[in-house]
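User: Fold this one for me? It's HTH arsR-type domain-containing protein.
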Amino acid sequence: MVVQSELSDAEVDRVFHALADATRRDILRRTLTGKATVSDLAAAYAMSFAAVQKHVAVLEGPGS
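Assistant: Here's what I get for HTH arsR-type domain-containing protein.
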């Protein structure tokens, strides 16, 4: 098993971009307590399902 101890600048940028938005931070908090579908998450916000889905996609990031 290879353990990478450092993130590239691009990876760090993606992490900070994902966490820069309050909705994405809240989605992260909600998913830390257990599994949730996008539909479950969307019910908690005053935005469309598609908007929540886009937030989730940013949190998943490329290559996830």
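One thing worth pointing out: The helical segments are 9-19, 22-32, 38-42, 49-60.
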